[in-house]
Amino acid sequence: MEKYIIIILIFLVLFYLYNCIMIIENFEDDTQWSDNWTKLDFEARKDDICTPISKEYKKLGPINSWIWTVPISCENGMPHTRDENIIAIPNGFSEIRLPKTIEHEKIHLHQRRSQKDWIKFYKKYWNYEIFKQPPLSLPKELTEMKRANPDTNDAPFACWKGKWWSVPVYYSTTDLKFRNCIVKWWNSKTNKIHSEAPDDWLSFFGQKVSQAEHPHEISAVYIANILFDDYDESVKAMNILNKKWDRVNEKLIN
Asked: What angle do CA 66, 25, 35 make, to 5 degrees?
């Protein structure tokens, strides 16, 4: 009898240790980039399950990466990156859209791996600066409503021409769907918040930028478009990036 009790106790201990390991692993997968989250970010992701369904290591040209297939609930079903080596694709994602999406996400990996090169490019050619923390004077309504983005988490706050801060915000405190988020523009010189990008920004970056919140997103959209023959030569910012992006070696030429 004593022998069976010992076996049961050993089994229970092993079962407990296994569950502890799984909890830690899932915690790391789900929240490893949560350092910049607001209360609304946690609320928006309360039902997220981001533990990978599968993991596959792939050579994607000069850039190698893990491709995670994650549950559709993860990040509202939006593809994204984590760390320097992970592209997360929602389960069941469109096969037609996948190649262009992978190219977009690869740029986010490159931005993490070569952060100094991108910071230099943004400042020299696009008049953008990016920051880890917001300015102390950023209005509370923006800091509290801001939506976190894993692809810009290294420096989530962007400022154009030293005064225009583009801030992605939730549509409302009750509508936390990522696809309904909007970009607000705060002018730090006048302390006014605008719903539209300034005219000179639109003249430089174009009227149809799908992800205007941050230069990381703008550049990823541009390069993916260029690679898939959706190149608009009338957009000044895209022309500059096209000249400075080495397609063969997949790196910036500064």
From this structure: 85
The token duo for 156 is 């989530």
Can you give the pLDDT at residue 11? 56
Q: Contact, 125 vs 56, CB < 8 A?
A: no
Going by pLDDT thresholds of 50, 70 and 90, the confidence category of residue 56 is very high
Token digits of residue 155: 């420096």
pLDDT at 6: 61
CA 88 to CA 74: how far, in whole Å? Answer: 9
Neighbours of 200 (CB within 10 A): 12
Per-residue tokens: 87: 């592209």
Q: How far apart are CA 107 and CA 87, in angstroms?
A: 11
DSSP classification of residue 168: E
* Type of residue numbered 169: V
Condensed to tens digits (0 to 9), the pLDDT of residues 12-52 reads: 445 444 443 443 344 345 446 888 899 999 999 999 999 99
Rounded to a whole number of angstroms, the distance between the first and last alpha carbons of the chain is 75
How does pLDDT run across 171-187, given as a tens digit for each residue?
999 999 999 999 999 99
For residues 156 and 158, what is the distance between their CA atoms, to the nearest angstrom? 7
Using alpha carbons only, how large is the chain's radius of gyration in Å? 21
Q: What b/e readout covers 160-180, taking b as 16+ CB neighbours within 10 angstroms?
A: beeebbbbbbbeeeeebebee
Amino acid identity at 79:
P
**Pair of tokens at residue 200:** 């000179």
> Which amino acid type is present at position 157?
F
Question: CA–CA separation, 212 vs 215, rounded Å?
Answer: 7
